[in-house]
């Protein structure tokens, strides 16, 4: 198998795992609240803030990657 094909498969799997968080987390919020001894309201608020931050980062990072290049933006984010 060509290196480009392997890279594409790995990237696709990583991308799928990244977005699986959006599907896996909501059914677990009740258990997380119970384990932490807090209310669903607090856990829901934390989850909402997390997803809003993710979305805001995508809205900023996408155009920035188009202008500067994805490698440069990734290096800036990593530090």
Write structural notes for this entry:
The chain has one domain. The protein is mostly helical and 79 residues long. The chain is flat and about 50 Å long. The longest helix has 34 residues, at 3-36. The model has no long low-confidence stretch (mean pLDDT 91). It contains 3 helices and no strands.
Report helical residue fraction.
Answer: over 70%
> What sort of overall outline do the alpha carbons produce when their principal axes are compared?
flat
Q: Indicate the multimeric state.
A: single chain
Domain count? 1
Number of strands: 0
- Report the span from N to C terminus: 34 Å
Mean pLDDT: 91
Coarse structural class? mainly alpha
Can you summarize this structure?
This protein is mainly α and 79 residues long.
Please name the defining characteristics of this protein.
mainly alpha, flat, 3 helices, 79 residues
Topology:
Blueprint: H1 3-36, H2 40-68, H3 70-78
């Amino acid at each position: 198998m060509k290196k480009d094909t392997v890279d594409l498969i790995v990237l696709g799997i990583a991308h799928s795992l990244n977005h699986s968080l959006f599907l896996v987390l909501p059914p677990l919020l009740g258990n997380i609240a119970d384990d932490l001894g807090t209310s669903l309201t607090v856990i829901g608020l934390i989850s909402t803030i997390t997803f809003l931050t993710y979305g805001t980062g995508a809205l900023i990072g996408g155009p920035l990657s188009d202008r500067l290049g994805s490698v440069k933006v990734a290096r800036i984010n990593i530090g």
